[in-house]
Amino acid sequence: MANGKRIYSFGGGKAEGSRDMKEVLGGKGAGLAEMSNIGIPVPPGFTITTDVCTAFYAGRGKLPRDLVPGMRAALAKVEALTGKRFGDPENPLLVSVRSGARVSMPGMMDTVLNLGLNDRTVEGLARRSGNERFAWDSYRRFCAMFGDVVLGMKPEKKEDRDPFEVILERKKHAHGVKIDSDLPVDALRQLVSEFKAEVRSRKGVAFPDDPMDQLVAAVEAVFRSWENDRAIAYRELNGIPSGWGTAVSVQAMVFGNMGEDSGTGVAFTRNPATGDDTFYGEFLVNAQGEDVVAGTRTPQKIAELEARWPEIAKQLEGVRARLERHYREMQDIEFTIERRKLYVLQTRTGKRTGHAAVRIAVDMAEKRLISREEALLRVEPMALNQVLRPIFDAAKWQRAGKEGNGLARGLPAGPGAATGRVVFFASDAEEWKARGEKVILCRHETSPEDIRGMNAAEGFLTAFGGMTSHAALVARQMGKVAVVGCDALKFDYPARVMHVSTPRGDRTLKEGDWISMDGSTGEVVEGRVDTSPSEVHQVLIDKTRSASDAPVYREYAKLLSWADKARRLKVRANADQPDQAEAALAFGAQGIGLCRTEHMFFGEGKIGPMREMIVAETEADRRKALAKLLPFQRQDFAGIFRAMGSRPVTIRTIDPPLHEFLPQDEAGIEELARATGHTVEKVKARVHALHESNPMLGNRGCRLGISYPEITEMQARAILEAACGVAAEGIAVVPEVMIPLVGEKKELDHQAGLVRRVAEEVFAERGRKVKYAVGTMIEVPRGALTAGEIAETAEFFSFGTNDLTQTTFGLSRDDVGTVLYTYLENDIYDVDPFVTVDRKGVGQLMRMAVEAGRRTRPGMKLGICGEHGGDPSSVEFCHQIGLDYVSCSPYRLPIARLAAAQAALKEAAAAKASRRAPAAKRRPPARRAARRAAPRRARRR
Ligand code: ADP
Ligand code: MG
Ligand code: MG
């Protein structure tokens, strides 16, 4: 921080920080400050900034020495507000020590509760509260948490259990009770000394008694937890820079474990799975902290709060309304009730499924809580993937149930359909996935350690925990299918089986068995069940459902109609068949940006003449074979033109090296010899001659068209004859012929000359002219570098960013796997450049080509047709450099439309901000600017 302030206090209806300070206070600290400021009941405390975390790591894992006096001073304020004193044996103040990075990383880092207890203060707590049970319950919880987080008492092997859990289980068994809160006080006392003994025997250290020592050690441990395995994995998956660090909030404890008039819970201000505007959550009576999410007892629904504590329910409803109005966004809150008094301990933007994201954004905009622009900015474009994801085919699903394959039913925590093989450990999920298997991770419950395995699985099935459990939370965030709290399951991890009690008797499932589950209903069945298209797909593509009967579709369509109004970039599709063109139109395509003609050479009646052409030895023979292909190509193009009507269609001339069209096996070669009347030796020789060491850098693209001009001629003829034919039907076709892999203007001159000559011939023969354009792909660096010259011939450019990335990096797309993995792992590349345009390198070439091209040919049409055209960050970049359109696969179009709208809205917002702020004031602190420039969505794919 510029002002060097390292500790920010909150409490008593005010705070030194605010919601805008997430970078310094972390999301949790900023939320606590903001809630204090707006009068929501929050226990007082203070937040140590993320800069201290940075200093902590710079200082080799020690707190800056001069921080402690500041902590004492901040503690004194908390003492004044609570009337208790830290370490006071009469009336002790207990605190929690909580982690919190600037973006929420749920459960990834550590928290210690009830800190400040020792053998003396526990007595004071018991006396003051008049509740000995509660005091010792808090103490045993503290010992376990401190032991785990600060002293490193973790399970050692994956089959192992938490050492304190084992002791606790034993104790419960000895006392014949099922739940923690039924243990008598004496048992709790024993637990404390047994926990401490366990620490001594395993770690060889004494449990610290001095509260201030405890506090310093806990703050250090929370800073350390920024670098634990699961936090690192989470950061990798979510593109969070490791330089951010975590803040630490130290906060006065409030106690949900004070008895039957206390409790704790978590809630969402709306349903996070569907987006319904209903309060949604769970609570537990006489419980503390993570008990709700840990799933050791099954929580009650928030709706039941009304019956138990009507006045608390009303207060909580008030908090819900207040927070939504204030943040104008769905919130995820944690609360505790201490002797019928409500405290809120956390608020943050609630994670939600793709369905819910769309629903909430549209609903809030319609209720005028937010503008349409904000609604558009709130939905991650990639979240639309979930809305487009398949669901189970209703008939097949029902049949599976009737045939007696039904297994169980749990809570529907992550919507969608998943089918896969059972695995029981997160590490196995990763391994199986790497082998190409589809797996469903089945566990009693999941925990943050499992995060990598969860990412590898199609979905999760758990026996324990509710809709706010870890598995449910992660599913919503990752967009995975999840069924949780399915209590019919019993796990035997060492044997790697799960027992399921079904209405028809017990079933045992082994590792590797297939199951299917519906994350929208919570049903699980044995075996594989086929899926069917999403609601959106059913309405738009299959036309098997009407919009009036498709609520998900309607909200999707509304959001995208707003996006279409907001965006400047046009969207086109990569499609090469009439049915794909139709799908593209349904998803909003305004044209075709890439029609790959090579796919048209395969299939019935086509591959034969194609091969004949390739093995032919003379031009005359080649032309004979090409003549056979012409009608097929013409028909294919006509189909696409008809489907697209008056929208532009960009057709690329032949691109891949010829060997890709030839058979490589003995039988195929013999057959080809028979069909063409050549000897087997001749054909073999030809196959051999076409072999290249680096085919992707060899005779392909326009080079082929130059080696064999008759191929381009045939293609040009097919395109223009089709265009004339369809124009005669009264359709205003707009063909654009695109020459691939041009790196030198004369290459394009050659090919464009050919196309134009053929066009004149066709127009003369047909007595009809159509407007057409000839342009090029910019996909090798030399093409980008000489774009100004190339634009003298090219009427348009389309960036082929797949090849341009490959050739700019000098990295073969087909062989890059292991290199990429290593590079991403080691932060050498922030993102996979084949997924997201590398703005610095490839992007610079694009920018140059845009400028040079338009200098030569003002107003020149520019687009992109690489895979990047459907990647949100790349779409944003294309907007920024002034392309006219992006082109991507049909299913990516919704994502591209939304991403294009967001790019336009962000640009408008930035322009407005810079008009408002005078130039001098606009400079953000240097450090913040650097952080902002950090990659936001680095991820491994
Ligand atoms: P996480 O980031 O993993 O959610 P938190 O810091 O939010 O960790 O703490 C976990 C839980 O501990 C909270 O949900 C809350 O129930 C409990 N908790 C934290 N601080 C306090 C406190 N001061 N008083 C009572 N409970 C607390
Ligand atoms: Mg929390
Ligand atoms: Mg290419």
What is the element layout, followed by pairings?
Blueprint (H helix, E strand, L loop, with lengths): L6 E5 L2 E2 L6 H16 L7 E4 L1 H9 L8 H16 L2 E2 L5 E2 L1 E7 L9 E5 L5 H9 L2 H18 L13 H12 L10 H19 L7 H15 L3 H10 L7 E7 L10 E6 L11 E6 L5 H4 L5 E2 L3 H4 L1 H18 L3 E8 L2 E9 L4 H13 L5 H7 L5 H4 L3 E2 L1 H12 E4 L1 E4 L2 E7 L2 H9 L4 E5 L7 H6 L2 E4 L7 H9 L2 E4 L4 E4 L4 E6 L2 E6 L3 E5 L4 E4 L4 E2 L2 H8 L8 H16 L3 E5 L3 H9 L5 E5 L10 H9 L3 H26 L3 E5 L13 H11 L3 H11 L11 H6 L1 H20 L5 E6 L5 H22 L6 E6 L2 H5 L1 H4 L5 E4 L1 H9 L7 H9 L16 H15 L4 E4 L7 H9 L4 E4 L4 H24 L9 H8 L8
Parallel strand pairs: 4-5, 17-18, 18-19, 19-20, 27-28, 27-34, 28-29, 29-30, 30-31, 31-32, 32-33, 33-34
Antiparallel strand pairs: 1-2, 1-3, 3-8, 6-7, 6-8, 9-10, 9-12, 10-11, 12-13, 14-26, 15-25, 16-20, 17-24, 21-22, 22-23, 24-25
Helix pairs in contact: 4-5, 5-7, 6-7, 13-14, 13-21, 14-21, 21-36, 22-24, 23-24, 24-28, 25-26, 28-29, 35-36
The structure holds adenosine-5'-diphosphate (ADP) and magnesium ion (2 copies).
The site of one magnesium ion has 5 residues, from helix 32.
Describe this structure in words.
The chain has 941 residues and is α/β, with parallel strands linked by helices. Helix content is 46%, strand content 17%. It contains 37 helices and 34 strands. An eight-stranded mixed beta sheet has the order 15-25-24-17-18-19-20-16. It has an eight-stranded parallel beta barrel with strand order 27-28-29-30-31-32-33-34, surrounded by seven helices. Helix 14 (372-378) packs across helix 21 (551-566) and helix 25 (666-676) crosses helix 26. The protein is elongated and about 105 Å long. Mean pLDDT is 91; it is low at 921-941. One magnesium ion (MG) is lined by residues 334, 346.
